[in-house]
Structure formats: C-alpha cells, structure tokens
C-alpha cells in the first residue's frame, strides 16, 4: 500500500543555517505533494505544494524539490529562524478527485538553536 | 477571507460518555470538510470527509460518526467513548473543483478519555 515516510524524525539546526527535511513516498501514482508546518498545540498550516509535472518550486525562504525517479521530495528552509521550530509533514495526494484525502507522513521535528 | 473554527480546544471525558465536536467554516461556500485524528508524535489519519450537506464518507471503521447538518458545519460524534478515542482531532476544509487538495486546518481539539 501507499506510504509516506520521513527520513529523520528530528532535525536540529543553528539559527541562520539552511534546513533540509526529506520525505519518501512509495506510490508512483501520487501527483500532488504538500508540505505542512505544525506548531505545538495547533493545526497544520500549509507551506508549499508541488505537482508531479514540476521538479522544483520556490516560496518565501522555502523550496520544495521533487525527484520522481526515486520517489523523494524535500523541503529546504533558507536562513532558518527560531519561529521555524515545528513539526513538518509531507503529504501526498493521488489525483484531483481525491480532494484533500492526502496521506500524511509521521513528521519531522525541526528545532532551531539560537 | 476564509476562517475555520473548531471547539472545544481541550476536552476530558470519561469512558462511555458521549462526544460532540463542532467545526464551522466561514467565508466560503460548499467546501469539502474533513475530520482527522492525530496520535501523539504521529501523522494525521483521515476519519471522515464530506463533499456536501448530509454526505459523509468514512475512511476507517471506528467508534465515531460524523454529520454535516449545514453547508459549513461539520460535527464529530460518539455515543460511547473508548479509551482508544483519545487523541488530537482536527477539522479541515478544502475548495471543491480541480486543484482542491490543499487543506486548511482548524486549531484542533485535544481529547482525553479517562
């Protein structure tokens, strides 16, 4: 069956450094991927998304890379700040008809050290 | 702008008691609505989703039920809570139509069944 997994459950970085959070997926039919950020005690918040017809997409301080060959995506955060400390989830979706029925990974906890 | 409200934020209930969690969305019409559950330190599991009033789809067999009495209201219920129902419950919405996979989450309800 499908699975979405994160390579590392925790990541600790120094303030100002770049962060890279990785995610593997197993279903080659997945065509839409989303990164969410969840702060303690809150609901996940959309960060950035990418469709399978793209390899890279950039936002404000964040970049998502998609490698369909090895079924891997990553979230890069530039100049990591203390406010970036949170749990980051990748999610995959298969087809627009699945409407929000994303499969979520277990999350990577990012800790930013001052 | 769209907003989603979910309450209560925390709830402690005895085993065997009923449950009712409510979620409302403002600023959009005919959204897709979802209930997710998140175990501690884990990803999100989809429980129910709804594409319209009175239309409920269950993703996993369980002790819970959902209802959508109005377009922008989604309710999660149980007649008799089990210990295993403890968790962090999240309501979410997404747009309908193509490219509607992005989820917008509420702030969550931390349910403890004792």
Characterise this structure.
The complex is a heterodimer of chains A (114) and B (114). With 114 residues, chain A is mostly beta strands. Helix content of chain A is 0%, strand content 53%. In chain A, strands 2, 4, 5, 9, 10 and 11 form a 6-stranded mixed beta sheet that branches. Chain A has a 5-stranded antiparallel beta sheet with strand order 1-3-8-7-6, with no helix packed on it. In chain A, strand 7 and strand 8 form a beta hairpin. Chain A starts with a strand and ends with a strand. The mean pLDDT of chain A is 89. Helices cover 0% and strands 56% of the residues of chain B. Chain B has 114 residues and is mainly β. Classes of the chains: A mainly beta (114), B mainly beta (114).
Q: What radius of gyration of chain B results from the CA coordinates?
A: 13 Å
Radius of gyration of chain A: 13 Å
Note the total helix count of chain A. Answer: 0
The biggest sheet of chain B amounts to: 7 strands, mixed
- How many distinct beta strands of chain B? 11
Helix content of chain B: under 10%
Give the count of helical stretches of chain B.
0
| Average pLDDT over all residues of chain A | 89
The greatest interface here is: A-B, 23 and 28 residues
Mean pLDDT of chain B, to the nearest integer, reads: 92
Number of beta strands of chain A: 11
- Coarse structural class of chain A: mainly beta
The first-to-last residue Cα distance of chain B is 38 Å
The succession of helices and strands of chain A, N to C, reads: EEEEEEEEEEE
Q: Level of helix content of chain A? A: under 10%
User: Biggest β-sheet of chain A: count, sense, barrel?
Assistant: 6 strands, mixed
Question: SS-based structural class of chain B?
Answer: mainly beta
Share of residues in strands of chain A: over 45%
The first-to-last residue Cα distance of chain A is 41 Å
